[in-house]
Amino acid sequence: MSDPETSTAVTAADLMDAVAAAPEGPQVGAFFDFDGTVIAGYSVTSFMLHHVKNLDLHPRTTIDTLVSGWQGLHGEEDFRKFLGITLRTWAGRTPEELEKIGNRLFRDEIGPSVYPEAWRLIRLHLEKGHTVVLASSATRFQVEPAAKALGVEHTIYTAVEVGEDGTLTGHPDGRSPYGEGKAAAVKEFAASHDVDLDASFAYSNGGEDVPFLATVGHPAAVNPSAGLRRAAAERAWPALDFDGRPWTTPVEIGRTVATFAGMMGGFATGLGLGLLGGSRRAGLNLGIGLGGDLSLMASGVSLDVHGARHIWEAQPAVFLFNHQSQLDVLVLGGLLRGNFAPVAKKELANNVLFGGLMRLLETAFIDRADNAQAVKALEPAVERLREGTSIVIAPEGTRSPTPTPGKFKKGAFHLAMQAGVPIVPLVFRNTGELMSRNAMIIHPGVVQVAVLPPIDVSSWTREELDERIEGVRQSYIDTLAHWPGEG
């Protein structure tokens, strides 16, 4: 639907501006390819490696898959062969088995590779009320966990045949949405959902998706392959590359080791000086600040903080933070400086990196599987708040696989209500980009933090707590999508 002219290089901000200028409403579609567009890399790789690790994948299948991938896919026939190789791996398994594997792989491996730029585009389309669709030639076991985490209702994917015995046959069920097949699937979806394709948007990285992109009035080549880059130039489609994940180098490995040495050394020094002065709390505060400063300096990480004044406006308080990686711990030390105690899941008590430190910080460890124990474990935290020491807690209870915060648990909010103190939201924008969910290596860079105004919970009631909590969570999502100081 675009006339061939010249190449149009754009930025992510340009794409955001185009979406912001579009009409509101579900008649506008936003179709996102998945592998290479929303996530860096290919989700099938995580599935294949999972099967290799679990010794349930024949070596010949692995070799065939790798060779097929190295040779590249040059049409629907190549894709059908590649799909046949991968689907054979699942023959005899139930859909429920694959759903569990898909959810786990998304949480631990695939989710952390979501491009922040893609996340922000999806959020903006959702805010505009557009009909957002993940349109992929991958299976639902790869696509649906991502859609759920990203808040996307609609998916287009390769259906997998289920036999009479309820297990997968190893064959696709119908035509896969690849190449012209994806274009046909998008047109069919648009017709059944009253979507105006001329007013709609589409994003993809692969040359096979030229027909797919051509179905809409606002196509964009994102992280384009050589073939798609040429096609985009011929059609004057916007083209851009998202920022990729940084590579790990020996320098960064050394820096990471120095980071944790600096953290422990700084903390021990501060604590020792405080104890010499006769005050354990003063030592803890000095150690937290000194350990935070030394660890951030060693890692090459600096902080860019909006709203820092809110940290000091209403202490003691319950500080909330959206948990993305182990880097969050260092950021908290450098940001808050001291006078706080953490609340964390029980498993962290034995964490090789932070377990000992967290015990020294008088952390309240919660057994999430034991509600009665969890309530009892919070009692010391309430007492510390009443004595003037702030509490720090990740309301999600675990690290989120994407920039979208997970569901907030109620413990932090009960704490604030019982102790009569405010809640202060700390929004971490990109700790997961500098140190991904399960990574051990920290990459240098600037961590962006927004400190939101304190929230008075004195008038909250238990009856309205769910709604109040969701409002706080939404403030995180809104802040991440529209960062302070950016247009």
Automatic annotation (TrEMBL):
E.C. number: 2.3.1.51
Pfam families: Acyltransferase, HAD
Molecular-function annotations in GO: hydrolase activity
Similarity comment: family membership: Belongs to the 1-acyl-sn-glycerol-3-phosphate acyltransferase family.
Stretch forming the signal peptide: none
Keywords recorded for this protein, A-Z: Acyltransferase, Hydrolase, Lipid biosynthesis, Lipid metabolism, Phospholipid biosynthesis, Phospholipid metabolism, Transferase
Gene3D superfamilies registered for this protein in UniProt: HAD superfamily/HAD-like, SG protein - dephosphorylation function
Domain Phospholipid/glycerol acyltransferase: 317-431
Domain-related comment: The HXXXXD motif is essential for acyltransferase activity and may constitute the binding site for the phosphate moiety of the glycerol-3-phosphate.
Stated name of the protein: 1-acyl-sn-glycerol-3-phosphate acyltransferase
Family matches, as SUPFAM superfamilies: Glycerol-3-phosphate (1)-acyltransferase (SSF69593), HAD-like (SSF56784)
CDD domains reported in the protein's UniProt record: HAD_PGPPase (cd02612), LPLAT_AGPAT-like (cd07989)
Catalysed reaction equations from the record: a 1-acyl-sn-glycero-3-phosphate + an acyl-CoA = a 1,2-diacyl-sn-glycero-3-phosphate + CoA
Record has Magnesium as a keyword: no
